Amino acid sequence: MDSAAADGPHSGPGPAANPLGHGPVLLLTDARLADGRVVDVRISGDRIQAVGTAGSLGPLPALPGTPTVTTGARIDLRGYLLLPAPAEAHAHYDAAFSAALPTPPPDTPADLTRRITEAALTSLGYGATAQRTHVRIGDVHGLDRLEAVLTARQALRGLAELQAVAMPRLLTGRAGADGRAQLREALRLGATAAGGCPELDPDPAGYAQLLLEAAREADCAVDLHTSADDAPRLARLAGALAPLRPRVTLGPCGAMARGAATVLATSGVRVVCLPQNGCCTGLEGRPAGLRPGLVRELAAAGVPLAAGSGALRDPSNPVGRADPLESAYLLAAGGELGPEESYDAVANQARAALGLPPVRVDAGFPAELLAVRGDSLAGALAGGHSRLVVHCGRVVSRTSAVREFADTVALALPRQCGGGDG
């Protein structure tokens, strides 16, 4: 895929030297929505200003005594589906691309920051304008990894929103003293949420209680790792975190005990599953994939459910990708959810897990959008490679895919059909 290939959305007036630049107004024309309507969308600042039938919108109307606003980009989205931008709800960017590195990897501050930034940009290119990464703190690493994430977050301002979850390995007893101190410092420095894996601590209940106290003191969310394979232990964990709901997220829960979904349904917590392989570096042991039927059970019980990638070519998944549409595809292809519910799991449900407001292609909503090649949501999940990403009302990424066949093909086929990347 070439980010500058010629078959991407066609821009109108705008700075030729900067294909991502535009003025204060962005006009997206002839975009197909998931419900089949073809519309124009006008964006002003970081909000959607108007949505109208195709051909009905032009430059922003002038205020009395002022000229009509004509600056900005006009982008033709014929052949594209316009959707709320997805979000990455569960990543481990401090381990990204490390599967092919020596063990242990050369985690210098510069190397960590580079890999974290590359991981975030990779996910952004797929459409995730908001992202949450879990990051280890304490032990021999101290706060080095968190500081690298915070450095990358600053560098990515205006391109994507990056959240960090601080993960101490131990919190209880004498062995957890360092973890407790590092957690408080991490939240003071700017970690978005408190996390970790209680199952790795000798006292899981005590771990959860200490994490809850730190989160309440810092007024932040909790995002915990658990396999959820023990229903009574899961019930105790959910009960301990009840005072902080609805700001509690659990994942990846890939081996959740049967019947445990009803426990979570009454607890008010959210679940982020990882359809790629059901596991991540936050849990020890070999990935076993999502238990068959798990997602259907959670959905039937009414548990708020999001989906993330979990891994980007790290030891837990050396071929892991950071594409939210792949996560949605896996949910839909496995028959766990329909295409609409599957995409919602990586879009507005993922945004809710990150504490962000919902997005709709409608006036007044945040201008967080993804245009993907396709004539329907099912078609986009099946093979929508060409993408245009809008964050805070600004085009921040373009990817265009071109498929060509040798001239020995007898049939006269189009280079790219209108319904998808073909």
Commentary on this structure:
With 422 residues, this protein is of the alpha/beta class. Helix content is 27%, strand content 22%. The chain contains 11 helices and 17 strands. The protein has helices spanning 109-126, 144-155, 177-189, 204-218, 231-240, 261-265, 294-301, 324-333, 339-346, 348-353, 377-383; strands spanning 10-11, 25-32, 38-44, 47-53, 73-76, 80-84, 87-91, 130-137, 161-168, 193-196, 221-226, 248-252, 270-273, 305-307, 369-373, 387-391, 394-399. It has an 8-stranded parallel beta sheet. A 5-stranded mixed beta sheet has the order 1-5-2-3-4, with no helix packed on it. Strand 2 (25-32) and strand 3 form a beta hairpin. The protein is globular, with a radius of gyration of 22 Å. The relative contact order is 0.17. The model is unreliable at 1-7, 12-23 and 418-422 (pLDDT under 50).
